[in-house]
Amino acid sequence: xxIQNRVALITGSASGMGRQTARRLAENGAKVVINDIVPExxxxxxxxxxxxxxxxxxxxxxxxxxxxxxxxVQAVVDNFGSLDILVNNAGxxxxxxxxxxxxxxxxxTVDINLKGAFLCSQAAHNHMVxxxxxxxxxxxxxxxxxxxxxxxxxxxxxxxxxxxxxLALELGRKGVTSNCIAPGLIYTPMWxxxxxxxxxxxxxxxPTGRLGDTDDIxxxxxFLADDDNAFITGxxxxxxxxxxxxxx
Length: 248
Ligand SMILES: NC(=O)c1ccc[n+]([C@@H]2O[C@H](COP(=O)([O-])OP(=O)(O)OC[C@H]3O[C@@H](n4cnc5c(N)ncnc54)[C@H](O)[C@@H]3O)[C@@H](O)[C@H]2O)c1
What we know:
Elements: E1 7-10, H1 16-27, E2 31-36, H2 39-51, E3 56-60, H3 66-80, E4 85-88, H4 103-128, E5 134-139, H5 151-171, E6 176-183, H6 189-192, H7 196-204, H8 214-225, E7 236-239
Helix pairs in contact: 1-8, 3-4, 4-5
């Protein structure tokens, strides 16, 4: 049971929930790969985790580029010997009304949130299948249900739910599970930048009356990554304080 000595690659893990997930997995005995597109953030995260005695390596790579992803995954296997857990976490959003969105807004959002997860899963599964073991965990969003002003993001995250289901069907007999987490509002520094009236409105819609924090996501990922949890696959798990229960 657990994730002892498992090798975990978390994309976009030099910030936010990816960073906290990387810490939690490493604290539970995994060898963890910190990936991000920003070199200084990777360097700083790896230095901090190493100082805390955790087993980590850094990989600067743009997950929307196949060449970068293939090089990164090969480096992980060369260095740590396998790749057992993949968390497709890196993401961003370009939001706006349909009439205002540009082709670039669409391409960037879909390339990072959806194509990146496809490329990483494709590269990773080549190393999971021969070991008859693997955990792929995709970070979507409650917004996959649909949000006004979120055409690229909602479409990309809905696509990620579809990808999760396909991977579960294709890889189920190979010992590889594929699941999706749909976070709701999670406290990150971005929250502090919102005007107070927006914060009040968003909080008024939360059945739990509060935001989640990065540990709420990290703990769910830790659960899904566990060796013992081999019979949960193809699922979407909402970690959103009940906000998925109604629209609007
Ligand atoms: N924060 C929330 O409330 C929330 C809610 C629902 C879903 N999510 C999703 O959770 C995930 C993490 O969100 P977060 O708030 O922790 O974000 P964050 O911005 O703190 O971290 C995302 C990281 O991804 C990196 N990144 C961006 N493009 C990349 C690329 N091409 N290649 C590699 N790395 C790249 C960024 O540099 C950043 O460090 C995202 O997929 C996001 O869509 C967040």
